[in-house]
Amino acid sequence: MFDGLSHEALAARERALSAQFESLKKAGLALDLTRGKPSPEQVALSDGLDEALGGDYRLDDGTDARNYGGLLGIPEARRLGAELLGARPEETIAGGNASLTFMYQYLLHAWLNGPLGPETAWRHEPGPLKFLCVVPGYDRHFTITESLGFELLDVPIRDGGPDMDEVEALVADDPRIKGIWCVPKYSNPTGHVYSDEVVERFAHLARRAGPGFRIMWDNAYAVHDFDDAPPVLVNLLDRCRAAGAEDSAVLFGSTSKITRAGAGVAFMAASPANLSSFAKHLGVQTIGPDKVNQLRHVRFLRDADGIRAHMRRQASIVRPKFERVLHHLDAGLASDGLASWSRPRGGYFLSFEAPEGLAAAIVGLAGEAGVKLTPAGATFPYGRDRRDSNIRLAPTYPSLDEIDRAMPVFVTAVALAAARRRLGQAAAHA
Amino acid sequence: MFDGLSHEALAARERALSAQFESLKKAGLALDLTRGKPSPEQVALSDGLDEALGGDYRLDDGTDARNYGGLLGIPEARRLGAELLGARPEETIAGGNASLTFMYQYLLHAWLNGPLGPETAWRHEPGPLKFLCVVPGYDRHFTITESLGFELLDVPIRDGGPDMDEVEALVADDPRIKGIWCVPKYSNPTGHVYSDEVVERFAHLARRAGPGFRIMWDNAYAVHDFDDAPPVLVNLLDRCRAAGAEDSAVLFGSTSKITRAGAGVAFMAASPANLSSFAKHLGVQTIGPDKVNQLRHVRFLRDADGIRAHMRRQASIVRPKFERVLHHLDAGLASDGLASWSRPRGGYFLSFEAPEGLAAAIVGLAGEAGVKLTPAGATFPYGRDRRDSNIRLAPTYPSLDEIDRAMPVFVTAVALAAARRRLGQAAAHA
What we know:
homodimer; Aspartate Aminotransferase, domain 2; 13 strands
């Protein structure tokens, strides 16, 4: 961007960007691009949930959803979750309102009680136990394993998924690595979809790592496609079963970003051995999940076709917002070669790679001008992005108009941070 | 019952009871008096929940209940839960569909992370850790502490609550006792209400036991009164605060047996120090509870007066069933002096004390005749009733007609088991 500029020209450019930025600050914006929240228009698509029951609370098998029972979820919801996760209904359980809770509970169970019986409890193994984290990734995943005392190891993501050479080398060397966090489709925050080869390598990794290794497969964006010919993710549970390592795959998903954020239904799929062990743990703390809400969801979404139709309506709201963000990035920064960003075909985030060492400065500048961004580093374990480069952008919640006001602030902040650094470097060399 | 009978008369009586029992068996009953489930008529009282939102998802503070956020519950639900538990709204949190989950999570947190910070984590204390269980009591409580590795100690319940002399002596002697399980109002299964003196003694016990001791106060039947002048339970949190031991009281409740079993809202109340520590643990595994269901409940129940009115409708269904069970017990067994039973003024259970050593036999006989009872011993830790005497009766789910068919089986089973034993004893002495 600033290559070949004289010191004077660079200084003039910095002054121009500063002036531009000051005028943006005067607009008094208060915009938030931090969290992957659906917009009001998106959640309103599911207001029909509240009429979906129509006073009929009977399941197909005659069970009254308003009463106790059903630890693993109602059969109808388990079938829906199985379609969503690409698993068999008997391998799929339907829970409460948060797949994150299933993830925590599953790992807590593996650590406390053992994933496949008391003699397999991780807490009795020599430590420190470790967990692999694909980075940039989802902070709440990392926090779960951190809270359970795991040491977290970064593995970088590439175009087709995690760097599998590195994953394989780490796992081969260290039996204390108990698993890995993955968001395999429209990965949070980069938007990557794991390639067929990566999924296949995971299955073989699982076989080699042995029965105590767990691939935490958070398929949060399984059906969150922007177009009608979306990328297809290979089924990890099938591949692990074929490789003789079915106990290593644990799949998660929910309707949180299909219907209501925080009032949907969570799903988990795993081998029968995993599920029967996990069910004992669940049964200690609950009689069962909210079956009425599960039934409400099944009546409203019906089946995979119903979900697809619903997600097309979601896409018509979300896709234009991603396009608008990309438009601002392309128009404002593409010619500079300063930074790069992902172009997801679905999901909730896109990922911006700032010039190394500038992410925190950019987030700080944007904040000064009233545009709140996910804190730099938040997409890494311990909040530590060694390159200080990744910034997660979440386009779903703001309106198009808000994106049009926020993105010039972001683009200007990037250019200004880069100009200031270049000017500082030039001064240091002068 | 059989005192003064000759051997022949006793044998004749046994034959008569056996014949009566055989004819009851021929009726081919399939009745279930096991679980504390509300009846279909009771849950139908809350079908208005599904119209309660009326398309309006806004909280008083403008928050959209359909989106993420609100770890500790919506303010409206916290206020409702505070009224229910007799706590302050800021001391009360509203969660998912199960207070049992709050109980598990709270104790897990105390054990894993420490109730008041990492240096207070129970798992780092010298073991074996122990927990007091008021017996007969609620099996799911006992299972929670058992699953976390606690050794469980029985404390018998008396008319006004647990035997506090014994509780005080045990706790004074053993710092490894970390707490006690209590159902203070209409105790499961005896129906006792803890007296003012017992609650006061708990508060002073807490002060003496120190900041690591926890009274798990499951007020599941707080508003489940049969009449309009119900017994009043003294507020434990207030008493503990007055005694300088507010961190020791942890209160639980839910709408599971007010609105829908398994699709209600759970509440927990505790000191600010407890709550802020616990909130960190909750925040690792969830973004927040189902706010839509919380709002639905607040709109439907409104406030304490709304709950009271609703519970009067519940009582009009439940009370006659208790009366009918008592009628059968009184008519069939009172004159014999063989057994005793409680006469609760609310709640979900009544408790039957069979002649010592006969509970399992009675449950077995009733089962042969198609009347399923809670397994003998289930109301004790490890399923072990040393006296083999307590049987829990749950009158809420069956209809009056089903009670009229089930109770003669029960009454006959009690008399038959007693007659057979007496006959065996007589034979042994002959």
